[in-house]
TrEMBL record:
Organism (species): Prosthecodimorpha hirschii
Signal sequence residues: 1-20
PANTHER family: LEUCINE-SPECIFIC-BINDING PROTEIN, PERIPLASMIC BINDING PROTEIN OF ABC TRANSPORTER FOR NATURAL AMINO ACIDS
Residue ranges annotated for the Leucine-binding protein domain, each copy included: 33-366
Keywords: Amino-acid transport, Signal, Transport
Pfam family, one: Peripla_BP_6
Name of this chain's protein: ABC transporter substrate-binding protein
Entry superkingdom: Bacteria
GO biological process per UniProt: amino acid transport
Recorded family membership: Belongs to the leucine-binding protein family.
Amino acid sequence: MHRRTLLALAAAGLAATSLAGTTVGAQAQEIFKIGLILPMTGASASTGRQIEAAAKLYMAQNGDTVAGKKVQLIVKDDTGVADVTKRLAQELIVNDKVGAVAGFGLTPLALSVAPLATQAKVPQVVMAAATATITEASPFIVRTSFTLPQATQPMAEWASANGMKKVVTLVTDYGPGIDAEKTFTATFTKAGGTVENMRVPLANPDFSPFLQKVADAKPDALFVFVPSGYGAQFMRQFTERGLDKSGIKLIGTGDVTDDDLLNGMGDAALGVVTSHHYSAVHDSAENKAFVAAFKKAAGFRPNFMGVGGYDGMHVLYEGLKKTNGVGGEALVNAIKGMAWTSVRGPVSIDPQTRDIIQNVYIRKVEKVDGELHNVEFATIPNVKDPVKAAKAN
Ligand code: VNL
């Protein structure tokens, strides 16, 4: 064959290849895939169920097209095991070419994906996990849940202001529990109180031996942190040991009186005082509409995990509107500083830390229309994660 023909053929081949490449690229660009990795089975299954329902509700309400792109949600069950979370994230990033990974029910699961998000420059929206340091693990992490120090500090201040002098803390022995313990202890002792610390394992926890020690120590209050999904077992053992009638007040972050489980805990939960960023009976028009729509779509009550999922979808949608559909670092930058009225109240994404700034409410378990609820009675406005706020100063 003539050399020139060969060159022409080669050029045509190249053109065809690049044309095909462009076509494929254009098609891929029209879809923005979100890999939603959640514990759908195992001890934290309620967190997965909540976030999946909320993400789907957000899409049903806001449409599945944003900035000209079709949004596609790919839900994966990591069973609450970090190695699985990491493998799923890898597959979603490399094979499915997702524009964002989201979900992350527990701290170790969120941390396992952080290096991948950094390497692939893919935004990682943490909708649940709440150890303070998580957002420092990758500049591509944005968080729409909360941090334990953020929720705990107001509780320690409230306990001290309400005459408590001696408190025992009982926390699940991993990131968020240790954050809660440290924050409670530092704040409460600074205000003049004394604290004794106890930790219970995350896997198959048995609270009874610790509760016996609490009964013997006779503190004014027991401060508890257990992750969402563990509160019912804790309350059962608390009641079995007779602590509900011991005069020792039960306080904690709102994880223990999680709205998903609370109504099944029985009257022993009445009067428990907790601090948190969301209650299903938060009194706002936005929340009433949200709760009604969520119950109708999912068949159960939303909890704070569901709201983390709902707001996580919000930052992705609004971010994509701002970038005109561009993902990666531009999308993270578009989310920084974003402010809106969430169903939990006014919130914003701290542009420095990529954590959520939000109100923390002090609440008490009461009966509302025959159901147990966390009724908010005090508001601490615009709380930043205190650990990172202290570092910045
Ligand atoms: C975490 C923190 C998980 C708070 C939770 O429930 C929770 C975590 C599953 O960071 O692992 O309520």
